[in-house]
């Protein structure tokens, strides 16, 4: 993974630090998480936040092998 140094507003860093600690993430991972949500919301402006959040959770469950087959009918 490539890394780049970026200047960010201290207020954003402070908020991200609090959220990262509360959600057991590193500061960079918290900022990446917010960026992922922001990108998804901009790409899909009709979708509510809760739908986007559940899509991220579903993807993580898939990657962890925690999905079950659904049989229609």
> What integer value in Å does the Rg equal?
16 Å
Provide a count of the helices. Answer: 3
Spans of at least 5 consecutive residues whose pLDDT stays below 50 are none
Roughly how much helix do the residues carry, as a percent range? 55-70%
What string, H for helix and E for strand, traces the elements in order?
HHH
Oligomeric state of this protein: single chain
Relative strand content: under 5%
**What is the overall silhouette?**
elongated
Number of strands: 0
Residue-averaged pLDDT, rounded?
Answer: 92
The CA-CA distance between the termini, in Å, is 44 Å
- Could you give a short account of the major beta sheet? none
Instruction: Output the structural class.
Output: mainly alpha
Protein name: ParD-like antitoxin of type II toxin-antitoxin system
Organism: Parathalassolituus penaei
InterPro entries: ParD-like (IPR021831)
Question: What's the SSE blueprint?
Answer:
Elements: H1 10-22, H2 27-43, H3 49-63
Which features characterize this protein?
62% helix; 3 helices; mainly alpha
Question: How would you describe what is shown here?
Answer:
The protein is mainly α and 73 residues long. Helices cover 62% and strands 0% of the residues. The longest helix has 17 residues, at 27-43. The model has no long low-confidence stretch (mean pLDDT 92).
């Amino acid at each position: 993974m490539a890394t780049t140094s970026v200047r960010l507003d201290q207020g954003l860093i402070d908020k991200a630090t609090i959220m990262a600690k509360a959600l057991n993430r590193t500061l960079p991972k918290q900022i990446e998480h917010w960026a992922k949500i922001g990108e998804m919301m901009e790409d899909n402006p009709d979708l509510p936040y809760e739908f986007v959040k559940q899509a991220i959770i579903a993807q993580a469950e898939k990657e962890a092998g925690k999905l079950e087959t659904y049989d229609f009918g």
